[in-house]
Amino acid sequence: MIADDRWERPGWPEILIGLVTYAVLLVSFGVLMGFLPGNDTVLMGVVGSTAGGVVGVGAFAAAYSLRIQDLRPFGFKPVSPRWLMIAAGTGIVGYGLNLIIQFAYLTRFEASDPQGILHAAARGGPLPFLLSFLGGAIFTPFGEEILFRGVVANALDRYGAFAGIVLSAIIFGLAHGISVILPVAIMVGLLAAVLFRATGSVWPCVILHCVYNGMNSIASAFGFAPMQ
């Protein structure tokens, strides 16, 4: 008798419910941001830095509750410290690639800063920096990785490396909008998807993303971000 393995990992139902929920929550978050004082960019940056975390966790919860209701098939698996160190190093490499991509983009196109309020929060003083760092460099990486790697890349991996790595990275990039952030997000998505495919765990992906976003936050605080 062949075992029923339909629930061994997420599939298209989880991808669809996760991405639809992500879109709905992202729009809702944007509407709520509209009620904040428009001239208080620091406050908006602090709140906005948590958007990816709130939306990602909410979308993952919708995908999780659909059928499987077990965290392990979504990549919540331990890995060796070696993989976590590799992930941290990859995050540093990713930040270097981010600088190259942004500078290359800016030499070719004129672009406004789509993350201006996040930079303002990072430069708003110790407390805004701390809050935006916790939101943008810890909570958001966790929320985005459990959705885009734990659900999307995980489900697409069954169709091969191209779908699991490249296609999932493109979906991740498009979720960040059409701007200079698009190629940067695709690059981060590619690196994270490679780690996920190699380990089957979301934790190296979260570490990579935390290191990358953390370096970006620190660079913003000191005025080193290319678009500032």
Question: Would you kindly provide a written description of the structure presented here, covering whatever features stand out?
Answer:
With 228 residues, the protein is mainly α. It has one domain (12-221). Helix content is 72%, strand content 0%. It has 9 helices and no strands. The longest helix has 31 residues, at 126-156. The chain is globular, with a radius of gyration of 17 Å. Mean pLDDT is 90; it is low at 1-6.
Compose a concise summary of this entry.
With 228 residues, this protein is mainly alpha-helical. Helix content is 72%, strand content 0%. α1 (12-33) runs antiparallel to α3 and α6 runs antiparallel to α9 (203-221).
Distance between the termini: 62 Å
Helix content: over 70%
Low-pLDDT stretches: 1-6
The structural class is mainly alpha
- Kindly estimate the percentage of residues that lie in beta strands according to DSSP: under 5%
Average pLDDT for all residues:
90
Categorize the overall geometry: globular
Taking Cα atoms only, what radius of gyration do you get, to the nearest Å?
A: 17 Å
Considering the chains and any ligands shown, give keywords for the structure.
disordered N terminus, 228 residues, 9 helices
Please render the helix and strand layout as text.
Elements: H1 12-33, H2 41-48, H3 51-66, H4 81-108, H5 116-122, H6 126-156, H7 161-174, H8 181-199, H9 203-221
